[in-house]
Design a protein that fits this description.
This protein starts with a strand and ends with a helix. Strand 13 (about 150-155) and strand 14 form a beta hairpin. Strands 1, 4, 5, 9, 10 and 11 form a 6-stranded antiparallel beta sheet that branches. Strands 12, 15, 17, 20 and 21 form a 5-stranded mixed beta sheet that branches. The protein has 2 domains: about 5-115, no CATH class; about 120-230, Immunoglobulins (Immunoglobulin-like), CATH 2.60.40.10. It has 1 helix and 21 strands. With about 270 residues, it is mostly beta strands. The protein is about 10% helix and about 40% strand. The structure holds calcium ion (2 copies). One calcium ion binds next to loops.
């Protein structure tokens, strides 16, 4: 099923009593038809800072210098699979090189792609809109604002970005269950309005801040909606005459004064 999201698990074994250190990058090419999803949502028990999984790419890497603890560790990455089902891809013998040798540490690592049921993924959506009465609710006649950048964060890192459509709507789909933060990039030409926590996040609805709704915890199957950002029209500034307008005002006063004096002279 094209676009189906799955969790890919790479299990790295280590039968030694001590940690093994990679002496070369371990690069695993994903099976045909499988690419890293956006967000990749890297997880697992290996040193995650050493994992490279670029959304859209066809490989996952574990950097030289990273370690595999005694008993092994795992790396999970979200992937988009064009093929359903479960299958195993074995990393070639010798691809995993460590300081304790390739014969001591198992030279193969299992890579399993499991099709994930639709019910185990989540989504979050909302609208950026002109909150004409500044009440934090989309009322009749309050239009959406298009082209506003919305960012999705996890653990302080941006995992996805999008922009609002013609109706001011945005959505992030195919999300791994977890805790997310939605950030609005304040659109220019608008004054900041009220931001509101939506409904449908069964883990925790989250907390609205200024242009940010944080700690939204999505469980599998959640379709959270109405995570909205209200904006206000800037007040029209009171008009102060410009220099040239002041000159015209003074000139017209002078002309008026002169006309008044002329009339006075003629009357005498
Ligand atoms: Ca409103
Ligand atoms: Ca705002």
């Amino acid at each position: 099923m094209a676009g189906q999201q799955s969790t890919l698990t790479i299990s790295l074994g280590n039968g030694n009593a001590a940690a093994a250190t990679l002496t070369a990058d371990l690069v695993d090419s994903l099976p045909a038809g499988v690419t890293v999803a956006n967000p990749a949502s890297i997880a697992g028990t290996c040193t995650l800072g050493s994992v490279t999984a670029v959304p859209g790419s066809g490989s996952v890497a574990y950097a030289a210098g990273a370690t595999i603890p005694a008993g092994g560790c795992s790396i999970q990455v979200r992937v988009t699979a064009s093929v359903t089902g479960t299958y195993t891809n074995t990393i070639a013998a010798g691809a995993l090189q460590t300081d304790v040798g390739s014969n001591v540490v198992p030279a193969t690592a299992a890579l399993t792609v499991t099709s994930t049921a639709p019910g185990s993924i989540a989504s979050i959506a909302g609208t950026v809109y002109h909150d004409r009465n500044d009440n934090g609710v989309i009322n009749s006649g309050e239009e959406g604002i298009a082209g506003v950048e919305i960012r999705l964060l996890q653990g302080g890192s941006i995992v996805a970005t999008t922009t609002t459509d013609a109706n001011g709507h945005y959505s992030f789909t195919n999300l791994v269950p977890g805790t997310y933060t939605v950030v609005e990039v304040q659109p220019s030409g608008w004054n900041d309005g009220k931001d509101t926590v939506g409904v449908g996040a069964t883990g925790a609805p989250g907390t609205a801040g200024n242009d940010v709704i944080s700690n939204v915890t999505l469980a599998g199957g959640d379709a959270a909606t109405q995570y909205n950002f209200g904006e206000l029209r800037p007040p029209v500034a009171a008009s102060i005459p410009t220099l040239s307008e002041w000159a015209l005002i003074v000139l017209s006063m002078l002309l008026g004064l002169m006309a008044w004096r002329e009339a006075g002279v003629r009357r005498r």
